[in-house]
């Protein structure tokens, strides 16, 4: 019997085995032993079949499995041939067929050695298949752990920066024409920028020149170029004027870190460490923390080259000096680690100056004639038949438009689309003449080009308004919502909005227009980002155009949107959660931009006077995450919002005044919601100054306390509204009124003051205002934390400086005796540390654990902070109450860079408790009994171990239990450290006080692979390692009386399968006395020691 074999044929071997077992059912006793072996084989084959069907095999695993399965097939076929042959003989010599097989077994004589041989062959293959299953189980476990690791990293990256610019990059690359920007990639300036580490390239251009597409091409070139593969970090940012609020300095730095973390495992580990630091309190990293992290992950040992590409710097918000700060930080980073910077922008003097002063190469961006003509050529098939039929006219169109637009790609798109409704040669040529005239006028400068673009938008809108009525109305609605929405809309949100009938307050699914029609009726003004599903204007210049001509095209847009939102909120049907949530969050903002009218005011007041406010309205007013969780559980009505709360939140002072003055509805200015928050609290939170003033004029209490223990002043302080804080203080708000405040989502609520909150949040202007009005600078919360401590904890150096100038005590400690300097070190705030050091903060102050700022900084992992402390005179070998030095702490935490740094500064590589051996007799060993190398080995910090060994750390140092770095690493399953130490020459035979060696620890863990590694590194055991790799060694054992035990097991795997009785018998044969109380593993270890494979601790 034979058949072609593949992994899928495992089941055929199992079926053959099952058939033979039935044939052997009535066999004599000596044959039952083979039947038992086949039973084991049948079971393991079934397990292998299941395993193979659920796993992806490597080529090596597949090859090994096929070889083992073929051997199984050969053995089974030999047995089957014997049975078939004897059955045929018996049928020829027998009259009846009854009891045929029984007579066969009686007649068949077989040598016992043959039986032993075939049993051994089956047993060997069972062992090999079991080894395969164990290996697959380990692989699957590793995959599961990797999956968990990947999931943890995804959570950390999403926490760090939820925006993925890769989505925009993919969308841009899909839209580009082949060979676009080839001129830029081939330019000598660009090639030089690529070749020189630390070079900058600044590419300014007029609006619509194609800068964003050029940026995408540069990013794509770097990502796909073989010379910039592994070890090269690439990060990029696309600025967008509509995301100005979102694109803060922290967001920008976090985005760069996120992208680099996805390209290097060590950088990913740093991100997870920061994430784990903030997770317990559900807090976000500060800008200073992110900058420190960015500097730490951009080290040359991790990335051989680094490229940062930023597009449209002119669209980065200039308020708060964010643009200048971001560029300055990038240039500062460039000085340190030689990153290459590529940036595009409009012609803005401030931006150009930053790059020119840094020696950047400047290349002006303009769409080349080749790029423009290639684009026009790609859309000619969409033009009327008169164009499609004439190649001469097509060439004229390409030549005329490319000349007229003079490098403005966006204008070329608009011009080309304007030919779509020109149905005759005369109409086409007339339009081309117009383009030529416009081109002549726009060649006088950038302003003229922008004017030409504006005129092109005018013509586009005229074409839209000249469409059929249905097309025109749809285009008007689409553009109205896209232009005036408070945030970008998805295609689903826009479609559902268009399908809603605000007059009847009804959503009609049959009224949803097709997306293709939505785009078509807007004549190229609207595009869809395929990856994000956002529908938007074709270019930011279009947004600027509509804002400039708002009254012309959409004179009543804000009221149209506001009234639609109100209608959506009054409908009973919950038809589109994302659309209705938008309505709940933004109706008031649109309403606040509407010109007042009596009719509109009556409609709004009627809406606000409803008492059955829905959960959707409450959600727009969500105060914190805990309340959001309540709302998710359909508990919205518990918020008990009133119309006055809504007007205060959105700053609708006209409606608010009417509600307060309405004699038919007696409304108090201090009406409360379910958390005892008054309208003044809502106005203070949202920053609506006029609403605050109006409520105070109507007698609102400025010192009211909410159910959460907050006041209007602390609420305004938390959200950074300085002017509102000033108004409240001027109207009698108590600056020192204690208020409940939590530094984190699930943290404890502590009584604190507005000054302490300003210190935590970093609002220096409000802190200055509070101090000017006599705020208590020495107020302590329940934990003993003062404002200076809280500012240091959050890293707000400007607030700290202000507090110090006003007499704050920089040595004030909390109840754990932690000083502001220690806290700043703990949280990694370099600037705060430097400020405190300049004011001579105590370097040798210790907390309740005996740690100084140096020890605390080491645990946090910040090398720049350690540098600052050492330069200020901090001791490098200070021991805390557990006798831990900074070096030992760095080794425990796995900060290899800090270990290297401390050793380079002269830290003692062998520092540990000097009375270790004497004291270990009277107490349990502790971590302070370890040298840095022992600690690193115990925790599996391979990179730290390598660094310590480079500084000649003692590889044979011992702790109180006699453990060496090798034995302690082996006992803790730190196999990467074990392998490193063995390669460096560690004594593999070294034993601890209990007589256990590294090999014995690995043996007890039953990890065959690591046993083999140790065996290969141990010259005296090389022969046994080779025997292990062959899986089974059945060399006979010659006993003292000359007899032999055949097929004697001499390998770890073979011994691992011995039963208690069997190993006891073998020990007796070797003359080893078995002690009472030995368990099976001790007996196996003793046996291995007796045959020279393992130094048994019981020998």
UniProtKB/TrEMBL annotation:
Residues 180-346 form the Nephrocystin 3-like N-terminal domain. It holds the Pfam family Ank_2. Keywords: ANK repeat, Repeat. ANK repeats lie at residues 675-707, 708-740, 750-782, 783-815, 816-848, 849-881, 882-914, 928-960, 961-993. Residues 468-546 form the GPI inositol-deacylase winged helix domain. The keyword Protein biosynthesis does not apply. SUPFAM superfamilies: Ankyrin repeat. This is Ankyrin. It comes from Fusarium anthophilum.
């Amino acid at each position: 019997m034979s058949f072609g074999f593949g992994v899928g044929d495992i089941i055929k071997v199992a079926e053959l085995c099952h058939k033979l077992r039935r044939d052997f059912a009535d066999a004599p006793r000596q044959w039952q032993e083979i039947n038992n072996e086949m039973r084991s084989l049948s079971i393991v084959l079934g397990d292998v079949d299941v395993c193979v069907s659920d796993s992806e095999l490597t080529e090596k695993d597949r090859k090994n499995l096929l070889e083992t399965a073929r051997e199984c097939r050969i053995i089974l076929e030999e047995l089957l041939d014997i049975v078939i042959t004897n059955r045929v003989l018996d049928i020829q010599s027998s009259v009846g067929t009854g009891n045929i097989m029984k007579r066969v077994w009686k007649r068949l004589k077989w040598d016992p050695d043959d039986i032993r041989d075939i049993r051994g062959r089956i047993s060997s293959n069972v062992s090999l298949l079991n080894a395969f299953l164990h290996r697959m189980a380990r692989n699957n476990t590793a995959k599961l752990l990797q999956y968990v690791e990947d999931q943890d990293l995804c959570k950390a990256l999403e926490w760090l920066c939820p925006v993925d610019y890769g989505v925009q990059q993919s969308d841009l690359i899909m839209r580009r024409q082949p060979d676009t920007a080839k001129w830029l990639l081939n330019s000598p300036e660009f090639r030089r920028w690529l070749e020189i580490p630390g070079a900058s390239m600044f590419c300014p251009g007029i609006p619509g020149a194609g800068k964003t597409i050029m940026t995408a091409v540069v990013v794509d070139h770097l990502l796909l170029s073989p010379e910039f593969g592994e070890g090269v970090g690439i990060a990029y940012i696309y600025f967008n004027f509509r995301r100005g609020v979102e694109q803060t300095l922290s967001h920008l730095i976090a985005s760069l870190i996120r992208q680099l973390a996805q390209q290097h495992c060590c950088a990913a580990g740093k991100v997870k460490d920061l994430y784990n630091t903030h997770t317990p309190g559900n807090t976000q990293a500060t800008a200073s923390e992110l900058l420190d992290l960015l500097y730490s992950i951009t080290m040359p040992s991790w990335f051989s080259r680094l490229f940062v590409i930023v597009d449209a710097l002119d669209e980065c918000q200039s308020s708060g000096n964010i643009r200048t700060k971001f560029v300055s930080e990038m240039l500062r980073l460039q000085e340190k680690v030689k990153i290459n910077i590529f940036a595009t922008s409009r012609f803005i003097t401030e931006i150009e100056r930053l790059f020119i002063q840094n020696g950047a190469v400047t290349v002006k961006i303009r769409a080349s004639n080749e790029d423009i003509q290639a684009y026009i050529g790609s859309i000619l098939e969409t033009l009327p038949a008169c164009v499609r039929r004439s190649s001469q006219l097509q060439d004229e169109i390409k030549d005329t438009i490319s000349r007229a637009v003079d490098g403005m790609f966006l204008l070329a798109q608009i011009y080309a689309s304007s030919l779509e409704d020109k149905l005759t040669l005369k109409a086409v040529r007339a339009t081309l003449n117009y383009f030529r005239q416009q081109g002549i006028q726009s060649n006088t400068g950038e302003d003229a080009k922008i004017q030409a673009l504006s005129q092109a938008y005018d013509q586009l809108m005229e074409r839209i308004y000249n469409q059929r009525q249905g097309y025109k109305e749809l285009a008007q609605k689409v553009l109205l919502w896209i232009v005036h929405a408070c945030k970008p809309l998805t295609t689903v949100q826009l479609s559902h909005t268009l399908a809603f009938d605000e007059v009847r307050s009804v959503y009609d699914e049959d009224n949803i227009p097709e997306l293709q029609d939505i785009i078509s009726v807007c004549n190229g003004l609207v595009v869809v980002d395929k990856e994000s599903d956002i529908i938007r204007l074709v270019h930011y210049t279009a947004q600027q155009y509509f804002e400039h001509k708002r009254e012309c095209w959409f004179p009543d847009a804000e009221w149209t949107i506001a009234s639609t939102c109100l209608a959506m909120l009054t409908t009973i049907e919950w038809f589109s959660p994302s659309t209705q949530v938008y309505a709940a969050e933004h109706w008031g903002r649109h309403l606040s931009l509407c010109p007042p009218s009596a009719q509109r005011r009556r409609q709004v007041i009627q809406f606000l006077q409803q008492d059955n406010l829905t959960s959707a309205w409450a959600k727009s007013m969500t105060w914190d995450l805990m309340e959001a969780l309540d709302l998710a559980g359909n508990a919205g009505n518990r918020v008990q919002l009133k119309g006055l709360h809504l007007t205060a939140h959105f700053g609708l002072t006209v409606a608010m005044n009417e509600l307060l003055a309405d004699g038919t509805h007696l409304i108090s200015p201090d009406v409360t919601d379910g958390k005892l928050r008054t309208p003044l609290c809502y106005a203070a939170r949202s920053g609506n100054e006029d609403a605050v003033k109006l409520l105070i004029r109507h007698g609102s209490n400025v010192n009211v306390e909410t159910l959460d223990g907050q006041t209007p002043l602390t609420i305004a302080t938390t959200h950074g509204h300085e002017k509102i804080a000033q108004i409240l203080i001027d109207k009698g708000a108590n600056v020192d009124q204690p208020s409940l405040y939590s530094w984190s989502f699930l943290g404890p609520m502590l009584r604190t003051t507005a000054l302490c909150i300003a210190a935590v949040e970093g609002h220096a202007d409000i802190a200055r205002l509070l101090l000017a009005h006599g705020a208590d600078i020495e107020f302590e919360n329940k934990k003993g934390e003062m404002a200076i401590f809280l500012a240091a904890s959050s890293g707000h150096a400007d607030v700290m400086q202000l507090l110090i100038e006003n007499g704050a005590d920089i040595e004030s400690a909390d109840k754990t005796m932690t000083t502001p300097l220690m806290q700043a070190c703990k949280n990694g705030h370099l600037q705060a540390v430097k400020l405190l050091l300049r004011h001579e903060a105590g370097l040798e102050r210790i907390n309740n654990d005996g740690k100084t700022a140096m020890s605390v900084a080491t645990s946090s992992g910040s090398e720049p902070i350690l540098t600052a402390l050492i330069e200020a005179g901090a001791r490098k070998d200070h021991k805390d109450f557990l006798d831990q030095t900074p070096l030992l702490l760095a080794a425990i935490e796995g900060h290899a860079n800090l270990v290297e740094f401390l050793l380079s500064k002269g830290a003692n590589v062998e520092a540990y408790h000097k009375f270790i051996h004497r004291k270990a007799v009277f107490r349990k060993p502790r971590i302070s009994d370890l040298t840095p190398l022992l600690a690193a080995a115990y925790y599996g910090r391979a990179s730290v171990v390598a660094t310590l060994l480079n500084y000649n750390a003692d590889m044979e140092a011992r702790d109180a239990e006699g453990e060496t770095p090798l034995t302690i690493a082996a006992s803790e399953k730190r196999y990467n450290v074990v392998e490193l130490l063995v390669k460096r020459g560690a004594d593999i035979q070294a034993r601890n006080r209990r007589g256990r060696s590294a090999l014995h620890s690995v043996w007890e863990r039953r990890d065959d692979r690591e046993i083999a590694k140790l065996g290969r590194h141990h010259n005296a055991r090389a022969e046994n390692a080779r025997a292990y790799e062959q899986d089974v060694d059945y060399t006979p054992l010659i006993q003292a009386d000359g007899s032999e035990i055949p097929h004697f097991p001499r390998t770890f795997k073979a011994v691992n399968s011995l039963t208690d009785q069997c190993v006891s018998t073998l020990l007796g044969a070797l003359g080893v006395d078995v002690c009472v109380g030995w368990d099976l593993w001790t007996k196996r270890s003793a046996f291995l020691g007796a045959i020279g494979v393992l130094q048994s601790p019981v020998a």
